[in-house]
Amino acid sequence: MPHHLFPPKHQSKQGGPFRMPKKETSAYATVQAARAPRPYQTRELINGLVTNFHEFHGDRQSHDDPAVIGGIGWLDQQAVTVIATDKGNDLTERLQTHFGSPEPWGYRKALRLMKQAAKFHRPIVTLINTPGAYPGKEAEANGQGAAIADLLVACADLPTPILAILVGEGGSGGALALAFGDEVWMTDKSMYSILSPEGFAAILWKDASRAKEAAEVMQLTPQDLLAKGVCDRIVPDTGADFPAALKAAVKPKLAELTAMDPQSLVAKRQARFRQF
Predict the structure, then answer these.
(1) What single DSSP character describes residue 185?
(2) Which of 38, 111, 204, 254 has its CA 20 to 30 A from that of 245?
(3) What are the alphabetically sorted keywords of the record (predicted)?
(4) Residue 82 parent element (H or E)
(5) For residue 59, what pLDDT is reported?
(6) Is residue 230 pLDDT above 70, yes or no?
(7) Closest Cα partner for 164 from 231, 237, 73?
């Protein structure tokens, strides 16, 4: 196992006790780090993970969603389906992607590509950085909730490996829709929560200014979620060279998952999520 990864469980492979990483920053500092711009663009991350990436567009029903980038690339000799959320790199792109918040056709595009991957037993890697699904009127009118639900139902039975990696924000069902994986990884500059700390504070205390306090209560940091088994590994985000480091970590895990019998893979995935 690469030295830059924490063990997936609370014990090392040698059976010794696993010491949790020391919590050096506040939960809200983690939120700020998750929201901060990355030193690499989403497409740079994809191209660092796979070569000859061929992007697919559209959900075969209505639109294409620029907030979801999906396609096929090569991880050395292995064909892999990669699906990533994208926040955009300038104001125009950020408005087009709703700052990384997918619409129904984005989730339906992801579902189309996942079913295609399953047909050819091609492993799937999802790269998640989204504050949540877009809550606009048109999105709701066109089945936002149903699109997320359909994706979750499909992932529960998909007979091909799924590795989900949170590389920034992981907000609510919008993130969960792409995180129904055999393993869920987080970078040390990511978060995963049922909603934003501001939204949590506004609902619980009627005061969004208590977001820092809410972040602590929500236990949304990678360290908190690793301890609870919600995520399986924490991968250090090393900045500009992170795409190459991520590839080195992903390759052996996909080989391990691909070697599993599809029925056993699905049963294990379902058991993982049933415990919650």
Answers:
(1) E
(2) 111
(3) ATP-binding, Fatty acid biosynthesis, Fatty acid metabolism, Lipid biosynthesis, Lipid metabolism, Nucleotide-binding, Transferase
(4) strand 78-85
(5) 85
(6) yes
(7) 231
